[in-house]
Description:
The chain is elongated. It has four helices and three strands. It is 31% helix and 6% strand. The site of flavin-adenine dinucleotide has 13 residues, from helix 4.
Amino acid sequence: MAATSEAEHVVTNGMSQYSRNERNANSGIVVGITPEDYPGHPLAGIDYQRRLEAHAYVLGGKTYAAPGQLVGDFLANTPSTSFGKVTPSYLPDVHLCNLASALPDYAIEAIREAIPAFDKKIPGFAMPDAVLTGVETRTSSPIRIKRNEHYQSINTKGLYPAGEGAGYAGGILSAAVDGIKVAEALALDMMAIK
Ligand SMILES: Cc1cc2nc3c(=O)[nH]c(=O)nc-3n(C[C@H](O)[C@H](O)[C@H](O)COP(=O)(O)OP(=O)(O)OC[C@H]3O[C@@H](n4cnc5c(N)ncnc54)[C@H](O)[C@@H]3O)c2cc1C
């Protein structure tokens, strides 16, 4: 899915589809990054995301198409020029290019290493015609609002940071679990006050 939220930026987001009868099998390849990868002020992680999203817009041909590359070309570090057996489902479009600059080198290298390894477990994962589409930069939040063992903000009493935006989840299920934990903590605190 297109999840772009500002002009001249491109963001993709893999979305579970209710139908299991679509033409393509989709999956996300996630590379973990840490604050050490984007040193600076507390919101440096958001600046980092925005830089990647602005570059993805350029790589995608400045039309809000998402940059894409065939797996075979990606592993060989050569630009893709035409699709093979796989037609991507991403709208508005996928613009073929070389994704080598779409993410930091360590992330690209990690994905190049991972794809053949995944293929050993899931034969066909490294199919040369498979299409890589990017960039999914918002798998989880680049900031975290610190909280104590009672799930309360460490500097604002009565504030209970929860879920993805607060930096405690990355996905529907983990956000739901975090929400339950915080609700339980809030209920306990309320009972303690009584
Ligand atoms: C396009 C897309 C596809 C996705 N697909 C998947 C998927 O397939 N599987 C998966 O596990 N995850 C998926 N995710 C991620 C998933 O949606 C999130 O991880 C999850 O919704 C986080 O839940 P949350 O409750 O923490 O935050 P959110 O769901 O973001 O909820 C935050 C709520 O707070 C509201 N809000 C914001 N500011 C204020 C304010 N000032 N006052 C009052 N309300 C406010 C917002 O309107 C929103 O309703 C997808 C995300 C996107 C964008």
